[in-house]
């Protein structure tokens, strides 16, 4: 499988090593500065872990070449997500804000348990990441938020400051940044005299890379469509 990787940062470089070890032919790591080099060739699959500013030219490229796309970049706005969804009408697009198995399972679990808890428990999300991360809150925190509030029934309270008053029908989302933390996400259910807390800790980026490579193998050769970790877990 001929693969192009968009992004030359922490994820891009680790992806290249792992993809090559799995026998994929990596034609290169690309960024906005050298996109012309990619436009001159075709690949079967593009893996993007870079920055949302690359989204438009990457979409143009996969649409022209019919390559499949595994997309992991976070910090997308609603319009960006719509563009990706629209691309999946002509291309196979695999999308996840977090390619670890642990977060895929946690997302599934909290979808199931939230309806049992939300009447009596307040819900909050806390994420912690390294000091180089550009977006906040993390894409995963937003994915977990969507899982606990699929109908948008709560106010989404991004941090709190000042005389905020008593808690309303809201979900708090909090971002911590520092050091080299690969990523930690907690979903808290806070009730009368009891707290239920689920925490996922990534102790290395390799888990995201392994998940993205699995997603690449899963989506390669599939017909146009939108593919997720949930689909891949079903097999
Ligand atoms: N879905 C998942 O499981 C995971 C997703 N991610 C996401 O992947 C992305 C990359 O993460 P990571 O490798 O750690 O980040 P890095 O900062 O290490 O690398 C980012 C890459 O994007 C490029 N870039 C930065 N800003 C711009 C810009 N404005 N326009 C075009 N290119 C740009 C950088 O180039 P330069 O160095 O020249 O600025 C670099 O090549 C992030 O969005 C992160 O949240 C990360 C881990 C897991
Ligand atoms: O930037 C990172 O590092 C990570 N980004 C993703 C996110 O925003 O959720 C996934 C993971 O937490 C690491």
Automatic annotation (TrEMBL):
Q: Which UniProt keywords apply?
A: Amino-acid biosynthesis, Cytoplasm, Diaminopimelate biosynthesis, Lysine biosynthesis, NAD, NADP, Oxidoreductase
What GO biological process terms are annotated to this protein in UniProt?
Answer: diaminopimelate biosynthetic process; lysine biosynthetic process via diaminopimelate
Q: Which segments does the entry list as coiled coil?
A: none
| Molecular function via GO | 4-hydroxy-tetrahydrodipicolinate reductase; NAD binding; NADP binding; oxidoreductase activity, acting on CH or CH2 groups, NAD or NADP as acceptor
Question: What Pfam families does this protein's entry cite?
Answer: DapB_C (PF05173), DapB_N (PF01113)
Task: Give the residues annotated as active site.
Answer: 129, 133
Class of the enzyme per the UniProt entry, highest EC level? oxidoreductase
- Protein localization: Cytoplasm
The Dihydrodipicolinate reductase N-terminal domain extends over 1-99
Q: Which reaction does it catalyse?
A: (S)-2,3,4,5-tetrahydrodipicolinate + NADP(+) + H2O = (2S,4S)-4-hydroxy-2,3,4,5-tetrahydrodipicolinate + NADPH + H(+); (S)-2,3,4,5-tetrahydrodipicolinate + NAD(+) + H2O = (2S,4S)-4-hydroxy-2,3,4,5-tetrahydrodipicolinate + NADH + H(+)
The Dihydrodipicolinate reductase C-terminal domain extends over 102-233
- Where, in this chain's numbering, is NAD(+) bound? 31, 72-74, 96-99
Reading the lineage from the top rank, the first entry is Bacteria
- The primary location reported for this protein is cytoplasm
* CDD domains associated with the record: DHDPR_N
Q: Which positions bind (S)-2,3,4,5-tetrahydrodipicolinate?
A: 130, 139-140
Metabolic or biological pathway: Amino-acid biosynthesis; L-lysine biosynthesis via DAP pathway; (S)-tetrahydrodipicolinate from L-aspartate: step 4/4
Q: Which InterPro entries match?
A: DapB_C (IPR022663), DapB_N (IPR000846), DapB_N_CS (IPR022664), DHDPR_bac (IPR023940), NAD(P)-bd_dom_sf (IPR036291)
Q: Which PANTHER family match?
A: 4-HYDROXY-TETRAHYDRODIPICOLINATE REDUCTASE, DIHYDRODIPICOLINATE REDUCTASE
Protein task: Catalyzes the conversion of 4-hydroxy-tetrahydrodipicolinate (HTPA) to tetrahydrodipicolinate.
The entry assigns this protein to a family as follows: Belongs to the DapB family.
> Mind telling me what this protein is named?
4-hydroxy-tetrahydrodipicolinate reductase
- Source organism of the structure: Faecalicoccus pleomorphus
- Lineage of the source organism? Bacteria, Bacillati, Bacillota, Erysipelotrichia, Erysipelotrichales
């Amino acid at each position: 499988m001929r693969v192009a990787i968009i992004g030359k940062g922490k994820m891009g470089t680790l992806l290249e090593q792992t993809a090559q070890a799995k026998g994929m032919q990596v034609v290169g790591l690309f960024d906005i500065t050298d996109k012309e080099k990619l436009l001159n060739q075709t690949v079967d699959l593009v893996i993007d872990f870079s920055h949302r500013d690359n989204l438009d030219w990457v979409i143009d490229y996969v649409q022209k070449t019919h390559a499949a796309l595994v997309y992991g970049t976070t910090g997308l706005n609603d319009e960006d997500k719509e563009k990706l969804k629209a691309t999946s009408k002509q291309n196979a697009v695999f999308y996840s804000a977090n390619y670890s198995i642990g977060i895929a399972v946690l997302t599934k679990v909290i979808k199931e348990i939230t309806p049992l808890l939300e009447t009596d428990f307040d819900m909050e999300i806390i994420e912690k990441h390294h000091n180089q991360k550009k977006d906040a809150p993390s894409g995963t925190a937003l994915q977990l938020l969507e899982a606990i509030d699929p109908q948008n029934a709560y106010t989404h309270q991004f941090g709190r400051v000042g005389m905020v008053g008593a808690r309303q029908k809201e979900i708090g989302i909090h971002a911590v940044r520092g050091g080299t933390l690969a990523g930690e996400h907690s979903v808290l259910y806070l009730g009368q005299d009891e707290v239920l807390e689920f925490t996922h800790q990534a102790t290395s980026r390799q888990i995201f890379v392994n998940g993205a490579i699995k997603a690449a193998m899963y989506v390669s050769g599939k017909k146009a469509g939108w593919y997720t970790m949930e689909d891949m877990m079903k097999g």
